[in-house]
Each structure stands twice: as C-alpha cells, then as structure tokens.
Amino acid sequence: MTSNLHRRNKWTFSVGTVGRDMVYTLISTYFLATYVVSVLQPSDAVLAWVSGLILAARLFDVVMDLVMGSIVDNTRSRWGQFKPWILAGVFASALFTVLLFSPFEFNAVAFVTIFFLLYLCWSLTWTMNDIPYWSLLPALTLVPKEREDIGSLAKIFAYIGLFAVAGSIIPVTTLLGHSMSAQMAWLVYTLCVVAVMLAGQMVTLFGTKVPTLVVPQERVRLREIYSVIVKNDQLLWVAIAMILFMTGYLTTTTLGVPYFQFIYGDKNMYTPFTIVLAVASIGGLLVFPTLRKRFSRRTLYTAATVLIVGGYVVFFLAPTGNFIVIAVGGLLLFLGDTLVSILMLMFISDTIDYGHWKLGRRNTAITFALQPFINKLGAALSAEVAALALIWSGINAAKNDPDLVTAGGQTVMKLVMLVFPLVTTVIAFVLWRWKYRIDETFYARILADLRERGQLIDEESVTTE
Question: Is 310 a residue whose pLDDT tops 50?
Fold first, then answer.
C-alpha cells in the first residue's frame, strides 16, 4: 500500500467514527439511566421491564452480529463487501435513533411495547452499519504498525464524539428545556447528533479505498459461523476477556450522571469531570504510538490494568465534593481504559490473520463481528446491572431528589459503579494473560506462512476497490 493511500484511508476512516460514537454514547450511556429515569420518570416496575427488554433486545442482536458478519463476508458487489451495508445501516439506524427520542404519551403497557420494538429495530439497523464499518479497518492493511496507526486515530475521533456528547448533553438539554419540554429538548439534541453521524459516514464511504491484499475466499455458509469462532481459540479468549472488561467499564459510564447527582449531590459536576476524562482518553490515544515503540503489547496491557485498579480505588475513597481527588481517580481510570480499548482492537485484528493461518480461510467480517458483539453484550449486561442498582439503591424512586436516597442506597451505588467493574477488569486481565499467545514474533510468523502458502498478496502489487 502506498503511503498516500494509507494516509487517505487513515483519516477518512477515522472521521467516520465521530458521529457514530456520538449516537452510540447517547443510546448506550444516557438513554436508560438519564433520559428514561430523569425525563420520562417511569415507575420501578416499568423501569424493570424496560431494562429487561433492553437486555433481551441486545442479546438477540449479539447473535445477529454474527449473522451480519456472515452476510458481509459473502457480499460481492462493485462497491466491495463493506460499503453497501455501511450506507444502508447508517440511514436506517439514524431513523430509529430519532424515533427513540420522539415524544409520545401512552399507558405503561403500550409504552413498554412500543419502546421494545423501536429499540430492537435500532439495535438491528445499528448492527447493519457497525459490522461492516469495523470490518473495513483490518481490510485496509496487513501491516501491524499501519493498523495501529489507523486504529489509534479512529479511537481518537471516537473519543471526540463520545466526550462531545458527555460534555454537552446535560447543559444543552437543560438550556433547550427552558424554551420547550424536556422531551423536545432531547429530540432536538438527538437530531443534531444524528446529522453529525451521517456527515462523517459519507466521508468514510467516499474517501476510503480498499486494497486487495487477500486471495479471494470461498463463501461462508451460515451454519459454519459457530465453528469459525470456536475453532479460532485466540479470538474466543479475547472475546471472553473483553466482555468482562466492557461490562464493568460500561457500568461505570452508564451510572456516571446519577452517581454525581445522588452521591455527590451535584450533577453539574459531571460536565467538568468529562473534560478530565476527555484529556485522559484522548491523551492516552495520542501517546499510544510512542509507547508502542518502547513497550510490548503485553507490558502496556499490564500497566493499563494497574492504572484502572488505582483509579477505582482513588475514586472509591474520594471525599464527597473533593473534585481534585475525583479528577485524579478519573484520569487514572480512563487512561487505563483507553489503552485497553485500543489494545483489544489490535488483538481482534490479529486474530483474523491467526484464523486464516490456522483454519485456512479468512473470515474478516465474522471475526470482526466479535467487537460489536462484545460491546453490545457488555452494554446489555451493564444496562441491566445499572437498572438494578438504580432500583435497589432507591434512586429511581427518589425522582431526582438526592435527599430521599439513604446511606445504604449510596453504598449500593458505590459498590456497583466502582467495585464491581474493578473485579471484572482484573478477571479479564488474568484470563487474557493466561490464554492469549499472539505476540509480535508469532504474528510475523503467521504472515510469513500465509505468504508462503500463496494466501496473501504482496502489498507492492495491490489494487484498490
């Protein structure tokens, strides 16, 4: 691949993540614990039903991730494997994102039913875009450094989108709420976020050029999906470790706003806190290429886990209202989380080549379907954990009044938001360290063997779609 093509792909692919992560953050982090609880204010029974249906929809959707991976792997078109599905998925998911935040008044049964149908449609259409979008990344290059280069920049743009929402959603919807209803304020905000997503995805669709680096593979039959994943042992262990990590991480982020509102008594602290998190996360991505020149992936993952554990301990012990101590805990926590997230992206990318080497066939989309599979399953489990925490702690019943939450309720929130994720993070690291064996030396051997078999094309002679 020429350096000019690499630079073009790196930037046009990465720009597409900004709006996507804005929408995903809006849904995964703020829809249930903030919008539904604080704006719609359902009863405990309705909230329990809603959270349970979110879990059901996401569990169904994670299975569809693998089916979508098979569909993408089997796609043959003049626009390639990925772009037709990216285009269809982004417009469909944009529609259902807007519908989820559209104001409507129904009785409890109708509300739960309509909500479930809309959320399920959003999940499925998001999958239609998500699987081919991230499957595009490993298809752009086989060079580990270039993959890390693209992945790091894509994550930087993704975090820009994430923290753009995290830092603006409370003040903007509050400001808009002065001139319209709270539900309309959230709808207007959602429309702006969706517009950014559509614009960014157009940059990716028209800007990226996919080089042909791999010898064409036979089509994958639907019944072969399970064996593709299970027989790729390295992919399987990475997936399990990452599900544990993401469940804990997303539990913390989902409970962020209610934690500041009901534990610290001031939800407005959350906005400056997101600035700290943005500095930690984007800073981590910026220094990642430099760190990779000096340290192995194993060393970086170990260091990242230590930072995360330290961050949770500082956060847990932080005195109420002491923003400096809270900020230090957040810096440690999200710097470590950022390093783990980019490393996991690289681990999954490498298992594509490992599966090609071990099984004799390359299943890029099915393999990379595990990343959204992991994120969605982690989000589903964390949403259920968060909903239970909001109910058990008495926060949902408090209806925005921190004085109604008891000391016992506050303890429940602290344990669920800080201790539970710490435990899942440590278990994930131990499992990865025990089972994952694709280091830099082994990966170089994998590529050399594939070239010797004639299953990879020399990059000097690539063509592009």
Answer: yes
In degrees rounded to 5, what are phi and psi of residue 214? -120, 140
| Residue 350 DSSP label | H
Rounded Cα gap, residues 260 and 265, in angstroms = 6
388's torsion region: left (phi>0), alpha (psi -120 to 50) or beta? alpha
Contact 145, 444 (CB under 8 A): no
**Virtual torsion, Cα 128, 134, 137, 139, nearest 10 deg:** -50
Q: What does the block give as tokens for 51?
A: 């959270």
Phi, psi (deg, nearest 5) at residue 456? -125, 150
Token representation of residue 40? 């719609």
- The CATH number, out of the four listed (2.40.37.10, 1.20.1250.20, 3.40.50.620, 3.30.1330.60), of the domain defined by the range 3-206+221-454: 1.20.1250.20
State the Cα–Cα distance between residues 163 and 159, nearest whole angstrom.
6
Q: What is the pLDDT of residues 114-151, one digit of tens each?
A: 888 888 899 889 988 988 888 787 777 767 677 778 87
Q: How far is 93 from 128, CA to CA, in rounded Å?
A: 8
Residue 276 clears pLDDT 50, i.e. is over it: yes
**Residues 161-185: pLDDT tens digits?**
988 888 888 889 889 988 888 888 9
Residue in 25, 255, 253 with CA at minimum distance from that of residue 126: 25
